[in-house]
Every structure is written in C-alpha cells, then in structure tokens.
Amino acid sequence: MRDTVSLNRVDCSLDRLKLCGIQQILPELLKKAQHEQWSHLQLLDTLLEEEVSRREEKRIKNALRLSGIPYIKTIDQFDFDFQPHLDKQMIMNLFDMTFLSRKENIILLGPPGVGKTHLAVSLAIKACQMGEKISFMTMHELIKKLRADKDKGKTRLRPRYYRASLAVVDEVGYTPISREDCQLFFEFITKRYECSSTVITSNKAFIEWVELFHDPVIVSAILDRLLHHSIIVNIKGQSYRLKDKIVSGIQK
Ligand code: ADP
Ligand code: MG
Among 227, 244, 242, 240, which residue's Cα sits nearest to residue 106? Predict the structure, then answer.
C-alpha cells in the first residue's frame, strides 16, 4: 500500500518535471532491479541514462528537422567501392569534424550523381549530432532567403544561415544567377568567412563559375574568400543513379 502511494507520488513528480523517459520505464525497471538485486546507484544510473539518451535523440530529431537537410543518409551508407578514385581516408578524416573549429570550408565538386549531396548531408548530420547548429539549403533556396531578408531590412534576429556553425549550400551552378544575386551571395560568403564553416557542392569547375556569376571580379572575390581556408574534394566517377544500368550494360 505504502509502495503504491509512493509510486503514484513519484509518477506525479516525474510528470511535473517532464521526465517522460524515466516515467515510461520506471515500473518495469523497478521490478528488474529488485529481481536482479541492483544497488540504488545502479538503478538511478540506468534511469538517468535512459532519460538523457531519449532527450538527446529528441534534440537531434528536432535539430535535423529544422536544419533543412533534404534526406537522412550517413557516411556508413556511402559505397566507396563505387568511387575508387575518391580518397576514402581523406573523406573519413573530414568526419572528425575538426574543420569546424578551424572555420574551414569544404567544396565538393563533380558531375551529377557522384554523391556530393550525400557527403554534404552526412557531414551535416554528424555536426548536428555533435550539437552544432546547421543550415542546409540549395543555392536556389539561399538566394530566395537572401533576397527576402534584404527586402525585410534589418531584422532583430540574425538569420539561421549566418548563425549556423555549418551552412551547406547545395547545387551551386545548376542555374545561372543575376548580378544582383551574385552580390548577395558574395555578402553571404564574406559574412561567414573565417567565422564559421560552409560546405558547397557544385557540378561546375571554378573556371565555369565566371559564366555562372556573370562578373569575373565578383567571382574572384567570392573564390578568394571561399578557398582561403578550404578543403576541395573533386569527385570524378560515374553517377550512382546509373549504377544498375552500368552493371546491366545499358549505359557505357
Ligand atoms: P550529386 O549530389 O553528386 O548529384 P547525390 O549525392 O544526390 O549526387 O547522389 C545521388 C543518389 O545516389 C543519392 O541517393 C545518393 O545517396 C546515392 N549515392 C551517390 N553516390 C553514392 C555512393 N558512393 N554510395 C552510396 N550511395 C550513393
Ligand atoms: Mg546533389
């Protein structure tokens, strides 16, 4: 009877403290602890571990939802055998994430389908798991946001793409952009320069960026800042999207 009263009170307190993880497993775990004669400390440790891991899971899920990441794919799902020219060790070294503290940028270049977005997504997920703030956008989305924020004028809160310790700009070069938008992109790169890391993916070589951004002066100013502290990954292989067709001989 006394146990039931105490358990009810504990349940109410857990409710008020919003310790849902503990609340869910407590009845079962109490039985287990009694059966296996756990110490009080072992029981407390297990309960708190469960609460911490559930909260962490929830935090990551929420952060990923807000980040703009288009899909969830990790580096474990990347088939390095399909890209034999890609230096696996160099890529895996990126995943120690020390480039973030060095405020370095990563530029992933290569034709469509070689895994640029997959690698950028994997890096963003890892950063997210480490508790870093992420902003993932296509170039098209970024330009739209920059334009909208410019029209709004000075807002009280700095936009997420500036606050993020890792911003990913995917698909630079898929569509040409106007001179005005080039200026906005230049300001974006300048504001992040040496403050936080930016990952860029592009299907165009740097030399082709001149055509894309119209103005050679602004391109050189953008590349100057972008490349000063950067790691460039050039992926030269086949499109993964055509993998099965290549195997079955449809595509040569
Ligand atoms: P890109 O951005 O270079 O155009 P993506 O990263 O979007 O290419 O890749 C296209 C699809 O192929 C995605 O579903 C991606 O997960 C997958 N993919 C690409 N390369 C690999 C790889 N080496 N191993 C596993 N999946 C890959
Ligand atoms: Mg892509």
Answer: 227
Q: How far apart are CA 223 and CA 237, in angstroms?
A: 24
Going by alpha carbons, the residue nearest to atom 10 of ligand 1 is: 113
Name the strands in the sheet holding 230-234, side by side, starting at the edge strand that comes first in the sequence: 134-138, 166-172, 197-202, 105-109, 230-234
Express each pLDDT in 5-42 by its tens digit: 788 999 999 999 999 999 999 999 999 999 999 999 99
pLDDT tens per residue across span 201-246: 999 999 998 888 888 899 999 999 999 999 999 999 889 988 776 5
CA atoms of 208 and 42, how far apart (whole Å): 62
- Which residues have C-beta atoms less than 6 Å from ligand 1? 73, 77-79, 82-83, 110, 112-118, 201, 240-241
Tokens linked to 97:
């994430």
